[in-house]
Design brief:
This protein has 389 residues and is of the alpha+beta class. It folds into two domains: 272 residues, Aminopeptidase, CATH 3.40.630; 108 residues, 2-Layer Sandwich (Alpha-Beta Plaits), CATH 3.30.70. The chain is 35% helix and 25% strand. The protein is built from eleven helices and 18 strands. The strands form five sheets. A six-stranded mixed β-sheet has the order 1-2-6-3-7-16, sandwiched between helices. It has a four-stranded antiparallel β-sheet with strand order 4-5-18-17, with helices on one face. Helix 1 crosses helix 11, helix 2 runs antiparallel to helix 5 and helix 5 packs across helix 11. The protein starts with 6 loop residues before the first helix and ends with a helix. Bound molecules: zinc ion (ZN). Zinc ion (ZN) binds next to helix 5.
Length: 389
């Protein structure tokens, strides 16, 4: 560690989060009740306003920038603990958009049930956004001051694949000392030290229409061709190396008595190494028709590179584990199939640790919730990391 933390400091951080739980949950509730499905510009701006006002009350914060994204709303970038020297910052990365459509909050309002709080987008990741702001406050209040400047970058289009957030993430990450990603943890609170890369493709097949009863031999079935391609694509699955190729959406044909002239499908691809990704991408982009009279047109490609478990990633995990150990928590790690903005960071060769959010369950689902008595532990872990890196 650059800055050794004492056990007393880590416990003081945890106690800070316990004492401030009410305020942290009040901000989380306001964020959850301000719906911000990806692509909803008004919702995104309203959330940015809440965060800008909350950040404004933390004295370590030196600037709050709202960055307009034409199609998605506003990204927000908060800088804190900026000193005289231009040391490389630690970047805390998150997102303000959710997958829940507007109106979800009416059907599934904020609800506390024992140790759980339910609400659309609370676990992925509005509670974690509130946790990041409180981490700045915790370092300040306990006088556990970070040696590096801290940047909190919250994008507004992560759930849509980050078309406009990606360049911002890469710009901040490439100069960072480390990047801490606030995505939800895996079960048991495990952080994420590996994420598969993703590819998204569309396949379009063109055949020839004909009467299915009178002269079917004159037709070229686009549906048959697509079915054969679907089997070929499915055969690209390789569980041993972690490659998956799934045909997810299929459409084709026009009428029950017409040989179909058109068919189309969407393909989801996942891979564990950049090399495997490039290889499978090339196979998919170069599919040839089984029936030479049909046309097969493939578009798309790799969307996010994999987050590979490099030495830098392992080093950061080890450091987080030591801090968690001071809180009597054995921090596990996991490698997962889902991608996040952490994937873009990993590809730059920067130290990154993902899945640092609060424990819970039901991301993107109706039972989405967080575990309340986990807040102080995750808060102390995050604040301890930024203070010690
Ligand atoms: Zn997320």
């Amino acid at each position: 560690m650059r800055n050794e933390l004492t056990i007393e400091q880590v416990i003081a951080l945890r106690d800070h989060f316990t004492a401030r739980q009410h305020e942290l949950l009040a901000l989380t509730c306001a964020l959850v009740e301000t719906e911000s499905p990806s692509g909803d510009k008004d919702g995104s701006s309203d959330v940015a306003s809440l965060l800008a006002s909350a950040a404004g009350s933390i004295s370590a914060v030196t600037s709050v920038e709202r960055i307009t994204s034409e199609d998605f709303g506003e990204h927000i970038r908060i800088r804190a603990f900026v000193g005289e020297d231009d040391a490389a910052p630690i970047v805390i990365l998150g997102h303000t958009d959710t997958v829940h459509p507007r109106g979800a909050i009416k059907e599934r309002p904020w609800r506390a049930d024992g140790n759980r709080i339910y609400g659309p987008g609370i676990f992925d990741m509005k509670a974690n956004v509130a946790l990041a702001l409180e981490a700045l406050h915790a370092c300040e209040a306990t006088n556990t001051l970070p040696k590096s400047p801290i940047t909190i970058l919250l994008t507004c289009d992560e759930e849509s694949g980050s078309p406009s957030g990606r360049s911002l993430v890469e710009e901040e990450a490439k100069n960072a000392r480390a990047v801490l990603v606030l995505e939800p943890p895996a079960s048991g609170g495990r952080v994420k030290t590996g994420r598969k890369g993703t590819g998204i493709f569309a396949i379009e097949v063109r055949g020839r229409a004909a009467h299915a009863g009178l002269e079917p031999e004159k037709g070229i079935s686009a549906v048959l061709e697509l079915a054969r391609q679907t089997i070929r694509l499915t055969n690209l699955n390789d569980p041993a190396t972690g490659t998956t190729v799934t045909v997810t959406v299929v459409q084709g044909g026009t009428h029950s008595n017409v040989v179909p002239a058109e068919a189309r499908a969407e393909i989801d691809m996942r891979f564990s190494s950049a090399e495997a990704g490039r290889r499978i991408e090339s196979v998919i982009l170069n599919l040839k028709p089984f029936d030479e009279r049909a046309q097969v047109i493939v578009s798309g490609g790799i969307n996010r590179p994999p987050l590979e478990r490099t030495a830098k990633v392992r080093g950061l995990y080890q450091q987080a584990r030591e801090i968690a150990g001071m809180l009597d928590f054995d921090l596990g790690e996991a490698s997962v199939g889902g991608a996040s903005d952490g994937n873009f960071v990993g590809a730059l060769g920067v130290a990154v640790l993902d899945g640092l959010g609060i424990e819970g369950d039901g991301a993107h689902a109706a039972h989405e919730h967080i575990i309340v008595d986990n807040i102080s532990l995750r808060g102390a872990l995050l604040a301890g990391l930024i203070a010690s890196l």
